[in-house]
Amino acid sequence: MTFSVPVTVRGYELDTQGHLNQAVYLQYAEHARWEMLRAAGLPQDKLLADGVGPVALETTLRFRKELRGGDEVEVTCRFEFTGSRTFRVAQQVLLLDGTVAADVTAVAGLLDLASRKLVQDPAGRLRALADRADVLG
């Protein structure tokens, strides 16, 4: 399952060339990840109460088309669990006509906040905590 959230590019997010600042793409991706977790029934406070938190270990951002103020986009998010302590997060920033503005891929994990080590089975842990595990893929 691929989750998505709508975002409208705001004027204060633009750089001096008049297009979306590079760092804001990462903020959009982060927003979509947290919204996906929330839709699954995993808001931050629930994860913290269980003593875990998602962590980004590596992120790659590929720009494909510039975004300008007022552009409306969908930011997608899909977790790809591999059975290891890490998982892949695949995301796209899409214009409403389907044009890909950016690809964001990340390697992530689920950190045990007490031991400061990655949880062995992040998919299992997240699904066990989730109200809607189907949202997690």
What's the short version?
The protein is α+β, with helices and mostly antiparallel strands. It has helices spanning about 20-40, 45-50, 120-130, and strands spanning about 5-10, 50-65, 70-80, 85-95, 100-110, 115-120.
Q: Which fold name corresponds to the CATH topology?
A: Thiol Ester Dehydrase, Chain A
Mean pLDDT: 97
* Top-tier CATH class: Alpha Beta
Number of helices: 3
Cα distance spanning the termini = 5 Å
Q: What is the overall shape?
A: elongated
Could you estimate the helical fraction of the residues in percent? 10-25%
Order of helices and strands: EHHEEEEEH
- Total count of strands: 6
CATH homologous superfamily placement = Hotdog Thioesterase
User: What share of the residues does DSSP label as strand, in percent?
Assistant: 35-45%
Please identify, by name, the CATH architecture.
Roll
Count of the domains = 1
Briefly note the structural class of the backbone: alpha+beta
Taking all Cα atoms into account, the compactness measure Rg is 16 Å
Explain how this protein is built.
The chain has 137 residues and is of the alpha+beta class. The chain has one domain: Hotdog Thioesterase (Thiol Ester Dehydrase, Chain A, Roll), CATH 3.10.129. The chain is 23% helix and 39% strand. The chain is built from three helices and six strands. The protein has helices at 22-39, 44-49, 122-129; strands at 3-8, 52-63, 72-81, 86-95, 100-112, 117-118.
